[in-house]
Amino acid sequence: xxxxxxxxxxxxxxxxxxxxxxxxxxxxxxxxxxxxxxxxxxxxxxxxxxxxxxxxxxxxxxxxxxxxxxxxxxxxxxxx
Length: 80
Known about the structure:
- The structure is a single chain.
- The protein has one domain.
- It is about 55% helix and about 10% strand.
- A hairpin with a 2-residue loop joins strand 1 and strand 2.
- It is rod-shaped and about 75 Å long.
- About 0% of the residues are buried.
């Protein structure tokens, strides 16, 4: 990363490593960017959780069992 940026991000001392001023600045910006991605992902996944249940089944099963029992399905779901 340092080579690609052309900047020193870390100060190495023996077996330890600390962020340089550039490294700290970059860390702050990268962390904000990752937080924004996490927030956008949460919003997107929650938006998709619309409460709509899609059931795929054979037409014969739907006609014989599912359609006559429209209230049975929600009672089978957790949190209903």
